[in-house]
Design a protein that fits this description.
Number of strands: 0
Order of helices and strands: HH
Shape: elongated
Distance between the termini: 71 Å
Number of helices: 2
Radius of gyration: 21 Å
Structural class: mainly alpha
Helix content: 40-55%
Length: 72
């Protein structure tokens, strides 16, 4: 069963690629290479889910970033 599913998945991928080429549109990247699915680099707390409300820690960090720097 797994062999048949793997074969059908390969056929689907090949037909999708042929369709994108026929339309003259670049193919979208595979799911594992899409930015939203990759974890951010270490030390970069960018939001991955814009549909979720920010946490208290995120709000505090944003507040720090938005405050003007002290003059002096």
């Amino acid at each position: 069963m797994r062999v048949a599913l793997r074969f059908l998945r390969g056929c689907y991928d090949a037909l999708a690629a042929a369709g994108w080429l026929w339309l003259g549109v670049p193919m979208p990247p595979p799911p594992e290479q899409r930015p939203a699915l990759r974890p951010p680099p270490h030390g970069h707390p960018e939001r991955l889910r814009p549909d979720l409300p920010p946490s208290d820690a995120e709000r505090a960090l944003w507040q720090q970033l938005l405050e003007p720097a002290p003059k002096g």
